[in-house]
């Protein structure tokens, strides 16, 4: 599945790495590696991570796994804005570049295919005026192939789709078996503007799986 107008393609189902860094319960290196290997064997080629997932542990574990597979077959995304350390949120240009450099070091990768602004709920102005233009420049310069925003809400994602040129949005928990609020405005606007939706926590409770293609909405029918 292609992400918007970019040349980045992802498998229909992806693997989010937050649970592999102990989001819900402790996970050993061996368990994390076995999960990644099973996902790869099942044909999954899209892997999402972030600095805040296990304080960098998810990025480290994913990076180790990717050293042993054909990197050209994998699509990898990480995030900027939500940081490690005492400065928990930084959506400035400098913050974006610093976050990216640290994530590349933790994963051992030369580049990410997709970068997402991470949960800028209370930082709209800084995110849209500084973080997004920084990602846009990286995309134009070839430093990243696609850019987007990942959040647990649909309203601000809708604003990003309407007011910027993102390739995709990652919407967590707002197009699920229990909450379909993303279908009200976000998904129709994405279709209109050729922006791809990556749906996270589509079973209402996140198990780490992500879906990069949506059926024609509304996808879930109310039982009668």
What does this structure look like?
Helix content is 33%, strand content 17%. With 224 residues, the protein is α/β, with parallel strands linked by helices. Strands 1-2-3-4-5-6-7-8 form an eight-stranded mixed barrel, surrounded by four helices. Helix 3 crosses helix 4 and helix 5 runs parallel beside helix 6. The protein is globular, with a radius of gyration of 16 Å.
Using only CA atoms, what is the Rg? 16 Å
**Overall helicity:** 25-40%
Would you count the extended β strands for me? 8
Order of helices and strands: EHEHEHEHEHEHEE
Order of adjacent strands in the largest pleated sheet = 1-2-3-4-5-6-7-8
Could you give a short account of the major beta sheet? 8 strands, mixed, barrel
The class by helix and strand makeup works out as: alpha/beta
Span of the ends, CA to CA: 33 Å
User: Regions with pLDDT < 50 over 5+ consecutive residues?
Assistant: 214-224
Name the shape in a single word: globular
Q: What fraction of the residues are assigned to beta strands by DSSP?
A: 15-25%
Tally the helices.
Answer: 6
Average residue pLDDT? 90
């Amino acid at each position: 599945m292609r992400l918007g107008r970019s040349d980045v393609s992802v498998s229909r189902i992806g693997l989010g790495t937050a649970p592999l860094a102990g989001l819900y319960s402790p996970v050993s290196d061996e368990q994390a590696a076995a999960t990644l290997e099973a996902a790869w064997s099942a044909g999954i080629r899209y892997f999402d991570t972030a600095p805040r997932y296990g304080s960098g542990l998810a990025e480290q574990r994913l990076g180790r796994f990717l050293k042993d597979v054909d990197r050209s077959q994998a699509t990898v995304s990480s995030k900027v804005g939500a940081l490690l350390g005492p400065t928990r949120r930084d959506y400035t240009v400098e913050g974006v570049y610093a976050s990216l450099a640290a994530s590349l070091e933790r994963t051992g990768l030369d580049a990410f295919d997709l970068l997402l602004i991470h949960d800028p709920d209370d930082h709209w102005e800084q995110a849209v005026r500084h973080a997004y233009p920084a990602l846009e420049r990286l995309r134009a310069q070839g430093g990243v192939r696609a850019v987007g925003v990942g959040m647990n809400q649909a309203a601000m994602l809708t604003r990003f789709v309407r007011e910027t040129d993102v390739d995709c949005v990652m919407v967590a928990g707002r197009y699920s078996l229990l909450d379909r609020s993303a279908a009200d405005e976000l998904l129709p606007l994405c279709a209109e503007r050729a922006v791809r939706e990556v749906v996270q926590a589509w079973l209402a409770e996140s198990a780490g799986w992500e879906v990069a293609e949506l059926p024609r909405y509304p996808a879930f029918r109310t039982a009668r």
